[in-house]
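Chapter review: from sequence to fold.
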Amino acid sequence: MAGCPVDRRALALRIALAWLLVAGISLIASFDQLSSQSIRGDDALRLVQVRDLIAGQGWFDLRQYRLSPPDGVPMHWSRLVDFPILAVIALLAPVLGQAGAELAAQIIVPLGVLALTMAAVGWSAARLFDLRTAGFAAIAVGLLPAVLSQMQPGVLDHHGWQVAMVALAAAGFVAGAGWRGPVLAGAAMAVGTSISLEVMTMAAAFGLVFSLRWLADRRSRAQLALYLASFASGLALIFLIALGPANFVQYCDAIGPAHLLLFGVIAAAVPLVVRLDPARPLFIMAPLALAGALGVASFAMAAPQCLASPFGALAPDVRTYWYALVMEGRPIWEQNVALAAPVLVQLIVGLGAALYLARSRGGIWPLYTFLIVLALGFGMLTWRSLAFAGALAALPLGWLIASAFARVEREQAVWAKGAILGALVLALMPSLVFDRLIPADRAGPGAGAAPPAGADNCYAPENFTRISELAHGTIAMPFDMGPAMLAHTPHSVLATGHHRAEQAMADTLAIFRSDPATAYAIVARREVDYIALCKGMSDTQVYARSAPEGLAANLLRDRAPAWLIPVPGLDEGNLRVWRVR
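The token string follows.
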């Protein structure tokens, strides 16, 4: 029953058992990746950032100096995510050594994020249902690939933290009357939005449902003000802690002074509306809309350049050959059907369960269902944001699992028990069907599609060992492999797939897609020492197809220009490296 006291010890035990089950399976599934030490992508670059901190780089110095040298690139990532990794490595390095501590961090940190997410969902379920449902809701988190993929061992990127904050904010919303729930929700959204502006859509969604709660029950009017105050003050505090006065500049891809002004104005205006306590919905929504308009106007005056998307002004080549190919940031209709369909089915099942609860139980469920709808809408536009909907859908899915098992216990006929369990398995794990109906390699390009044959062996440790032995220099290479090069070698990289290095990205694309003479002029200007490419990597193939006479296409045909000298030991196989004369 909603609002019943929760036996915290029993709840903690159930969530811990659920976490041990999911974490154990995740560890087994990740064993090969962890044992091969093949950290790559944003996880690798995050580790590089933490290593730089350990080596003495300032907390407020967010520049990655080995990227686009000599000036480096100011990263848009938050130190909030660096801190847990730093803490684990600093604590365990004296015992396990640096490499052992880094491996431990790759296990402890993401599984800790998983534990936080499962605890938030489990607590919400216990609050609304009972302890049994709480255990199943926690397990449901581990059944959702959209969520679990962000919290697997080896994942150090920030997306898992964002999902955990959505689950925590949902727990605050579920908490009901009182001040603790909205304050928790606002603080969680402040942390999530400080980590990435991608969470701002969910912060707005929670603000909307707190507003609708006020419309439904005037006794809840203070909750919206508390939520906004917690959110705005949390953003300001985190800005001071993670960025400091030295970074009091406005970027459009991360929380800055204009964003603080936006939410500060709204948070200051809404309590005035609450104090007026208008009786009619129209008289509530009109001043709330005015408060929002004042905030947006303040933002527009402070940072008019940020009214458009941070990616809207990308150079055409960078947009075409990088941004448009980052599938996790693309809409759902551009994804690999075999991989997207099961995720969507799971979330629709969760939404269906929530709709049933909204109709049969009322209470908080209509607004909670609306939250899921909003999160689904955001996820349709940005694929990885479906994880937010997953964090919300785990709660009704937990109820669905508990209800199905309760029905099985009541049924006498074996066939009925089997039918219920079979339907439950298909609803929770639809990939069992889609994997057979639509093989991933026939479903078109998209997120999670199998990498080109031979791409993985470019990340073999022996390759990085050989490259590390070369005289230190700057390497021009396709974006995807750049973070791993930074993590596994002492070299610098001209560009990776990080848009604040837009000019370096444009130059990298021009090097690989231009004729050799033009490419050499850019290489000389940029003082590049080495050219590297992985023949089986999708980036390389795209460059070659789009510019058949470009440098990448020539290198794939083993027609290196005279100004490139093959590096012995790295002149055969998939990974090729050349030294610039």
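Two observations follow directly from the output. The longest helix spans residues 79-128. The beta strands are 63-64, 73-74, 474-476, 492-493, 530-534, 564-566, 575-580.
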